[in-house]
Design goal:
By secondary structure, this protein is mainly alpha-helical. Helix content is 44%, strand content 9%. β9 (186-188) and β10 (196-198) form a beta hairpin.
Length: 401
């Protein structure tokens, strides 16, 4: 960006900032002046006669004390009043002159013609207007309630309303006010060209966020980039932005404005070379440490895999052993069941013949074992006949002692 363009942008942005910071510089509505103009339009004529009229007819309204505008005659006392003045009084008050209630009002056209032929000076003579003419032409000359497109036609010193802010200004000033000064005038953003509103809204609201509006660099370098490019300007272009040395990764901790960094680099070549050498050695040591740590991690991973495999094998064996134990327990239960069944069958077979067997049991140790709560098994029965059928039927019962 050239210096000429920078200077132009700077001046334009300073002007914009001043306007946006003081939008009240444009004239504000004047309530007193607006009230005066409004009362003049609603009451009699506020003007000065070139020559004093003859006293043969009434020219002043007793209510507003101005020259009669649209004179109306009352039926009670015969006085004349301005049309608007008497209409306001007639609604809820008696006659202001004779204090009679219930009076009637009639337009006095003859008096109106006589008054309108009198020569008067402009109502704004004190402001500098030199117009002189008949009273009937005064209202046209003043044009205080102009139609659309006729706002600038009439007395240059007459007070007329701004179309936008409704403030009253002299006619020769209102045009410049509406074009350049009124804060309510239609206005488009000159930077983005897409935002349309009144001047105050554009200046005090939109310009604070418009991406295309030039804004001053926060480092006060004198450049006014567009708001959307401000961050890029500060990070990449601004000569006053503090930046770290290009060798900061090697250990240089210097921070200087971007404009001074080139001089720093040229003056510290030896120091930066030393930093690079030391940094290279640290990098080599760090690489060796990383390789060692990598080998340790590989060994740890291999040991972990081996341990996991052993745990999986032992877990599988444990599961198989549990299944075998369950199978053996089931087989043991089945054998116990078979033994119990065979024992019951044997008991059923021996039950009829045991009482007839010639066997005498010695019960010497039975009581001792019974009292000691010790399980006792009788000695085996020896020398039983080979066949139970050979036992003699008349053999005596065995005696228990």
């Amino acid at each position: 960006m050239s210096s000429k363009n920078d200077l132009s942008s700077s001046k334009d942005t300073e002007r914009v900032c001043q306007v946006s910071e003081s939008p009240q510089a444009s004239p504000r509505p004047n309530p007193a002046r607006a009230t005066t103009a409004q009362s003049r339009r609603q009451g009699g004529f506020d003007c000065e006669f070139v020559e004093q009229p003859q006293e043969v007819f009434q020219v002043e309204c007793p209510i507003c004390l101005s020259v009669l505008r649209e004179p109306h005659l009352v039926s009670c006392c015969g006085y004349n009043y301005c049309q608007l003045c008497i209409q306001r009084v007639q609604q809820d008050s008696p006659c202001p002159t004779c204090n009679e209630a219930g009076f009637s009002v009639f337009p006095n056209k003859g008096l109106k013609r006589s008054i309108c032929t009198l020569h008067v000076r402009c109502s704004y003579r004190r402001n500098g207007c030199q117009w002189v003419g008949e009273l009937g032409e005064l209202e046209k000359h003043l044009n205080e309630s102009p139609k659309v497109g006729e706002q600038l036609v009439g007395c240059e010193f007459a007070e007329v309303e701004c179309h936008y802010c409704r403030a009253c200004f002299q006619r020769h000033c209102v045009d410049a006010h509406q074009i350049e000064q009124c804060i309510r005038r239609p206005f488009s953003c000159d930077y983005c060209g897409s935002y349309n509103a009144d001047y105050e809204d554009v200046v005090t609201r939109h310009w604070l966020v418009c991406d295309f509006r030039p804004v001053p660099c926060p480092n006060e370098c004198g450049v006014y980039p567009e708001r959307q490019n401000l961050e890029h300007h500060v990070d990449k272009d601004c000569p006053l932005t503090l930046v770290a040395c290009d060798f900061h990764h090697a250990g240089c901790t210097v921070q200087l404005p971007r404009a001074d960094m080139r001089l720093h680099l040229s003056e510290n070549l030896v120091a930066h070379t030393s930093l690079l050498a030391a940094n290279s050695q640290r990098i080599a040591e760090l690489n060796e440490r990383k390789l060692y740590e990598k080998a340790l991690r590989d060994d740890l991973a291999a040991s972990s895999r081996s341990f996991s495999e052993q745990v999986a094998r032992l877990t599988s064996e444990l599961s198989e052993n549990k299944q075998k134990i369950v199978a053996l327990e089931r087989e043991n239960e089945a054998l116990k069941q078979q033994l119990a069944e065979k024992t019951d069958a044997l008991d059923r077979k021996l039950q009829p013949v045991l009482p007839t067997l010639p066997v005498k049991f010695a019960m010497t140790d039975f009581d001792r074992h019974r009292k000691g709560n010790i399980t006792w098994y009788s000695p085996p029965i020896l020398h039983l006949p080979a066949r139970l059928q050979d036992v003699p039927q008349s053999s005596p019962r065995s005696s228990w002692s």
